[in-house]
Amino acid sequence: MNISKILIPIGLVFFIVAAWMQYQWAGVAIATGAVVMWVLLHFTRMVTVLSRASNRPVGHVGSAVMLNAKLKKGVNLMHVIAMTKSLGLRQSAENTQPEIFKWADMGDSHVICTFQDGKLQTWELTRPAEETTDTPTEKTPAI
């Protein structure tokens, strides 16, 4: 179980109780207003990121190589969606852990990201194989 699911509500209650002890009802009003503002800021960011992602094809990124360079272990899925401006193409079954998503670019390079509990654990860049030509090239004689 994620400890932040317990600590954040306890911290919020502690914050409001401390406001009560210091400023009575005025403190509770200010503390509650601050908590509501904090929730609204996170909600607004989430809606903005998802609305930008809705305008792009699922699983598409401008450059998979650049995405690979920008990724860091431990960032959440919403941060990766904000970087790519696209929802990832799901590779794992729904409601299972770990979640695996794929982002590809126009050059057939792709990044496969593995998220455990919403946090990035591993990612892998795959680039297309270099094509080799079997036809011999003509050499110009040196003069």
Characterization of this structure:
The chain is of the alpha+beta class. Strands 1-2-3-4 form a four-stranded antiparallel sheet, covered by helices on one side. The chain folds into two domains: 55 residues, no CATH class; 69 residues, Beta-lactamase Inhibitory Protein, Chain:B, domain 1 (2-Layer Sandwich). A hairpin with a 5-residue loop joins strand 2 and strand 3. The mean pLDDT is 89.
Outline:
With 143 residues, the protein is of the alpha+beta class. The chain is 45% helix and 16% strand. It is built from three helices and four strands.
CATH level-1 class of the largest domain: Alpha Beta
The number of distinct β-strands equals 4
Order of helices and strands: HHHEEEE
CATH architecture of the largest domain: 2-Layer Sandwich
Mean pLDDT: 89
Radius of gyration: 24 Å
Helices, by number, come to 3
CATH topology name of the largest domain: Beta-lactamase Inhibitory Protein, Chain:B, domain 1
Largest sheet: 4 strands, antiparallel
Low-pLDDT windows of residues:
none
The main sheet orders its strands as 1-2-3-4
Distance between the termini: 76 Å
Alpha-beta content class: alpha+beta
Proportion of residues in extended strands: 15-25%
Shape: elongated
Count the domains.
2
The helix content, as a percent range, equals: 40-55%
Keyword list:
143 residues, alpha+beta, Beta-lactamase Inhibitory Protein, Chain:B, domain 1, 2 domains, four-stranded antiparallel β-sheet, 3 helices, 45% helix
